[in-house]
């Protein structure tokens, strides 16, 4: 991240610097500890078949989290991703009759439209991101259910199922897709003008505006990307489950994605995007849940542990600059 | 990082020259539209509904609109305080469900335990969230999100993953609190009146608004910002617990699956009622209008579009919320222009 961030040299104490390090690298340490504990409890944990299962579970969350990381980087948040997943899922069975490519394409297009709605409300109307996307979160799931009817519909198309269930070289196809998107997002953030402008907007919107950056265009783009990635995740989820269930698919996804991003060291206050940290965060949350479930820890305890983890991560990432 | 300190000051509207301090007619209209908007829309919707179908305002409709929503009312009341400070409380739906289970569980000890147990636990839960937000300086969104997950987890643990259902004993006077329309509505009305007094007639209410308007200024003015914020989350948690207890009294048992998404309904009601999500302006009367408006719309959907069920309700709620926040943002901009 050397190109996009300014390292703290403003004479802050060693404690603050230690907290910064913890925020930045803590997730990798936590992931290592988790893997060590998991393998010592269960020697099969690092086996190929188990890791493959975990990758199937993590890939959609990771896709959504990468979009969310960009949005959070601009000091925004996208609560509508779970509903966008439902919307994409509802499109698939509707248009499968015209071929899988068109159905998937339309699903992604709907994701873009959803992102455009949220982005336009944030960028042009000046609505707070949390409110704009909250409205979408409520509304889009309703639209998805209206499109799809009450019951879950089976999806038995080979292309869609292939995306969700096949493996390539022993690794799930959807994990390859997630890896490719990770590379693309990482490259964009670190090596392109757009990435630097995005980070600048998140750090100080006013200054970016005065510096002549196309702030509105950047904001809209970020939400559109988030919407498309959520829709892609929706397609993969439909393929993996072989059904489209807009009432239940994507529920709580916004929470999981925000958690992965924040655990990965991206501060909610914007101005920084940690792409690899987001990957580690998504893996950590998935593996932690898997370990707890595999050792028969009740779901309630899992939830409480997750809540504590979120608090810890956010406590480490809170903005100490305003003190 | 140090640049961030200036971000707040920079995003505030530029100060106007002194000669301009009096309200222009246009500004007066904007202010009126903001304050009276929810009421006007409510009257319009009710008017159109009654004109379209003379049977609309029947007793059963009114009873559903008032009694059926008694629980959401209390969540929205607490949320109004929280949002006025510029915060948000996502935990209320979970606390509502937790309160219901605790009320049913306490009922085996007696009616009073049914009331005190949920209130005490939910108040404590809210207070912890408030402490983390006010003294830990963590984002309300995240803290209460963790609260949402944690309270659900606690609820699942209490009920052995939902397999145990606590029943309120048949003879308990506690059941009467939730029976019919008038008792719950009366309780809600008294609490709203108290809320109105707190917001409009006490220093605490003024502090809430001041903190939401500009927290740094509130600190510089010497207002007890941290204490006020802790109290506001405590209040919201307590009201959610009270809503849960009322729900438990109405259903006669602690149902674990309720309350999911209620925080969204509460937030939507508050925002539709004209309270600014950015903080600094909130009214109890507006929230009354907001809750009523959503309830009337839901009733209309139930009546005319029932074949689409909750899907249509969600779609309309979302669209309506989007319209309202767009209108708020537009009014805010035209005021600054």
Main β-sheet description of chain B: none
Lateral strand order in the biggest sheet of chain A: 1-4
Order of helices and strands of chain B: HHHHHHHHHHHHHH
Structural class of chain B: mainly alpha
Count every helix of chain A, treating DSSP H or I runs of 4 or more residues as helices.
13
Spell the H/E element sequence of chain A.
Answer: HHHHHEHEEHHHHEHHH
Q: What is the end-to-end distance of chain A? A: 25 Å
* Low-pLDDT segments of chain B: 1-12
Description of the structure:
The complex is a heterodimer of chains A (323) and B (337). With 323 residues, chain A is mainly alpha-helical. Chain A has helices at residues 14-41, 48-73, 81-95, 100-123, 129-148, 158-165, 173-191, 193-203, 205-210, 215-241, 253-263, 275-294, 299-317; strands at residues 153-154, 167-168, 171-172, 243-244. Chain A is built from 13 helices and four strands. In chain A, the strands form two sheets. Chain A has a two-stranded antiparallel ribbon with strand order 1-4. Chain A has a two-stranded antiparallel ribbon with strand order 2-3. The model of chain A has no long low-confidence stretch (mean pLDDT 84). Chain B is an all-alpha fold. Chain B has helices at residues 7-11, 25-52, 59-67, 70-84, 92-106, 111-134, 140-158, 182-201, 203-213, 215-220, 225-251, 262-272, 284-304, 309-336. The longest helix of chain B is centred in the first third of the chain and has 28 residues, at 25-52. The relative contact order of chain B is 0.18. Chains A and B meet through helix 5, helix 9, helix 11 and helix 13 of A and helix 1, helix 7, helix 12 and helix 14 of B.
